[in-house]
Amino acid sequence: MKKIFDFLRKITPKPILYLYHYFLAFVFAVLNGFPSKKIVVIGITGTKGKSTVTYLVYYLLKNLGIKAALSSSEFFFIDDKKIENKSRLTMPGRGFLQKFLKQAVENKCEVAVLEVTSEGLAQSRHAFIDFDIAVFLNLHPEHIEHHGSYEAYRNAKGKLFKALEKSKVRKFLRGTKVKKTIIVNIDDFEADYFLSFRAEQKINFSLESSLAEYSLLKPTTYKIYNKGIEFVLEGKKFSSPLLGKINLYNLLAGLSVIKALSLPINSLEQIIKEFKGLPGRFDIINAKGFKVIVDYAHTPDSIEEVYKTVIELFKPKRMICLIGSAGGLRDKWKRPVIGEIAAKYCNHIVISDEDPFNEDPNEIIKAIEMGAKRYLAEFEIEKPIEIIPDRKRAIFRLIELAQKGDIVITIGKGNEPSIVYKDKTISWNEKEVVIEALKNYSKISTKTL
Question: Is the pLDDT of residue 449 over 70?
Answer without folding.
Answer: no
